[in-house]
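>> received
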Amino acid sequence: MAQKTCLQIVRTVAPRLGIATPNTATGSTDLQIQQLLAFVNQEGQELAARYDWQALTYPVTFSAVAVEAQGNIEDLIEDNIGALSFRKVINDAMWNLTTRTRITGPLNSVQWNLATASSTAVGPWSEYRIRLNNLYLYPAPSANDQIRFEFITDDWVISNSGDARKSAFTADDDLCV
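>> returned
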């Protein structure tokens, strides 16, 4: 199925609602078209959040630092693949590529405190937690270990040129991912 542009979607829906078919959606001054565009964006955002769509899934690989705190997860994403919004890490999809071991998680606060407070609680794999949008790994990996994870973005729109992902239509020729 071909990707639909913002204007194609609005032009398809407008007559079904008894609204005149517009020549533009994002630049329209017609209140009904502005409302229709708002509904289209709202539905797109809700659909994107409803399921872990493969088209919204991206891998990230980064070089670890030798401490628990690896940094802001959005910065890790942007530094490695560009600006994309972050919704969540896919569970069971984080790996230390250097040691070829799985990194389990995410841990909740009780599990994290148990793991970090007791050396006897350390399992066979590293574990992770995201707190205040920062990624923590326990035990801390070695410096420059290559860590890979997959995440879901909320950016369900792509510019027609293909160079920008976004979470809402802002131009008539924007495409649904």
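>> The radius of gyration is 21 Å.
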